[in-house]
Amino acid sequence: MVHYGHSNQLRQARAMGDYLIVGVHTDEEIAKHKGPPVFTQEERYKMVQAIKWVDEIAPGAPYVTTLETLDKYNCDFCVHGDDITLTVDGKDTYEEVKTAGRYRECKRTQGVSTTDLVGRMLLMTKAHHSNIDEDLDYRKHTDNFGKGPKGRSPWTGVSQFLQTSQKIIQFASGKEPQPGDTIIYVAGAFDLFHIGHVDFLEKVHRLAEKPYIIAGLHFDQEVNRYKGKNYPIMNIHERTLSVLACRYVSEVVIGAPYAVTADLLDHFRVTLVCHGMTEVVPDKDGSDPYEEPKRRGIFQLVDSGSNLTTDLIVQRIIKNRLEFEARNQKKEAKELAVLEAMRRLDEKR
How far apart are CA 253 and CA 219, in angstroms? Predict the structure, then answer.
């Protein structure tokens, strides 16, 4: 997956030099060393390229980083997080560049990992958005793919992420709209920030010569009201960083109102309000949340050209998980059959 933990690593890496090239592995390389990827390699190429600290990507980068790779892209050194990565046979993937003194390290973002996010997606219950005890559906998957039910937040299930103002400052552009800018407002959950969101924001960005895109992010309770189940997978703070890391976004409204009001439009001097082709759920009182921008004639639907949704990502995760479990069960059955055959052979002797 691609998440704000990766974005934070890339932010730190970019600060160490002048030009950042990010090597992205193929699906085949990831499947060999780590397991089935959630996003395809083409999706990951585009996702990484959309992170604002990235100058260039190196598609199909080898899993083991060598001096040859660094020289190929004229890189002085490479950067990785302070968590060790190993090949399928247990070797340090950065051993060669470390020995040559062309390796630097950055701090890993606490409270998020692909494994953790996968765990959250497997807990498809609404229980963690209330204060009631977890039901069997929750406990069913509290294994190595997620955290146990103790000490979890009633709003985010298994998230251990702690937001600070410093982290937001590090991710924010800090740029205010300039004269001549077209101020465009978009709103939503932007949960599990993915290629569908990137494609949408890129299309919106192309609508103006000097776009200044403000993304309104709804609070967790609001997202849960219109999405249900255990959505959002990421809490409001995590979603804020995910969206801020995107090169097409200039500003984020944390906890934006569900209805795009006249006050909001006037406060930010909004020129245009955009929404994707996904369904717009009515507000609590049954009204259209985009009634005001439509009345002003500044509302526009934008087709991202992508059919990927958070729901589809969750379906991919569950499919991978079921295939993983089926493969393991088949392997265990085979091993048991071999042991049974050996036992019978010993008895005959």
Answer: 10
Kindly tell me if the per-residue pLDDT of 144 is higher than 50. Answer: no
Which distant-in-sequence residues (6+ apart) come within 8 Å of 47 by Cβ? 2, 39, 194, 195, 198
Domain boundaries, the chain: 4-106, 114-143, 165-301, 312-348
- Is the pLDDT at 50 greater than 70, yes or no? yes
Rounded to 10°, the helix 4-15/236-244 angle is 50
Per-residue burial over 286-314, b if 16 or more Cβ lie within 10 Å, else e, is eeebbebbeeeebbeebebebebbbeebb
Single-letter code of the amino acid located at 227: K
Residue 156, burial from CB neighbour count under 10 angstroms (0-12, 13-18, 19+): buried
pTM over 0.85: no
Q: Tokens at residue 67, please?
A: 């001096």
pLDDT of residue 159 exceeding 60: no
Same fold, 4-106 and 165-301: yes
Dump pLDDT digits (tens) for 103-143.
Answer: 999 988 777 777 777 777 777 544 444 443 444 443 343 33
CA-CA distance, 93 to 48, in Å (whole number)?
21
Render 178-208 in DSSP notation, one character per residue.
Answer: -TT-EEEEEEE--TT--HHHHHHHHHHHTTS
Q: What is the CATH number of domain 165-301?
A: 3.40.50.620
* CATH 3.40.50.620 is the classification of domain 4-106: yes
Q: What H or E segment, with its residue span, contains residue 57?
A: strand 56-59
The half-sphere exposure of 80 on its side-chain side, counting CA atoms within 13 A, is 18
